[in-house]
Fold Aminotransferase class V-fold PLP-dependent enzyme.
Amino acid sequence: MTEQRYRSHTDSIYGELDVPTVVNAAGTKTRIGGSLIRAEALEAMNDAASTFVELGDLQAAASDRIAEITGAEAGYVTSGAAAGLCLSAAAAIAGHDIAAMDRLPDTEGLPSEILMPRTHRTGYDHALRAAGATIVDIGTNDLHLGTGSTNVEPWEIEANITDETAAIAYMEKSYTEPPLDVVADIAHDHDIPVIVDAAAELPPRSNFSRFIEQGADLVVFSGGKGIRGPQTTGIVAGKQEYIESIALQHLDMHVAEAAWSPPKRLIDLDNFAGVPRQGIGRSMKVGKEELVGLIYALEAFMEEEQAETQREWQNRADNIACAIEDAGLETHVTGGSDVSVAPEVVINVDESSETTAIELVRRLRAENPRVYLGGDRIDEGEVVANPMCITDDEADYVADRIVANVEN
Ligand SMILES: *Cc1c(COP(=O)(O)O)cnc(C)c1O
């Protein structure tokens, strides 16, 4: 019965391609397609596809909107938050030096170290290194020794700033420390920028301006997560001088200098000794359709009734939890605060059934449609159902499939 409520393997475009579809109770995960793009964005993309436009003009329009929303001086649309990190590093290293732009990722002789508290490091830092940066780890693991000390002290960051330092990178999560404003003060005392990875920190919308207010020079958000824009978009918001450097290293530079006049509010050519050639960002291009899609998704995201969305997520999570508990599985619902967006249903599979969490995740992923649960707590014998990327019907379906696949 329930299966019929879904576009199954055979009746979607993916069926034509013979690719199984996914019911996504794992949240905004890139490998299963991120979030579902908003209808407003899709419509705008369709429209954008039929006309030519100068990409610099379009980036300038996006910059104005991003600046308005974030309170930053300027903004830029990249091909994802990871690309935004790479370009931010490139801007921190090359600045307005077009010869340096031309050489990246070769940074020999250029200050190119990016300091990061060890506890802020993730696999995404590869994007910073891709620009030619070397990452310098700061701090220890002392917090976990139970001595009462913290992982990283502000003085440790300051002590590692040298003539080789190009920036400090900061990964924004509710638990990261030291506080961003403290780190920004240290950076600014030494005339270096702070790059904040806030890819998944939307909603709440207040985060658009929060990190800028706390002193970040560049903040990176994903366009394909909470904003629900095109999957291949990201936003960088920040200081004009860096955004300008990003633009010059990203736009297609197959231009005749004498005939090129980009919008001055995006790139002031008086700040540069000429025009560089294709830069490090050229392999991360953004199409006019994605750019327009992101702008319209942003607008819809700003107008959305956040409390209403939050209530929907909470109801969906509570319904899943109820249905599963009725079948004898132990669950609890976490989150849903203004710090971490969506509530999630944590299901203790190992303790309350004969099945293991890993086995359950595997079985569900092998179904058609595939059912994806969050696997972040799999080592603790728990699976997580996230309500952000499913409909109410799909939430019922997910609960049914979980119950059908455990033995207790
Ligand atoms: C998702 C994510 C990214 C990458 O974002 P994309 O838009 O997919 O490139 C980077 N950093 C963090 C912390 C993320 O969660």
Q: What stands out?
A: The CA atoms of residues 140 and 151 lie 5 Å apart. The chain has 15 helices and twelve strands. Residues 1-5 have pLDDT under 50 and may be disordered. The domain at 39-303 is CATH 3.40.640.10 (Aspartate Aminotransferase; domain 2).
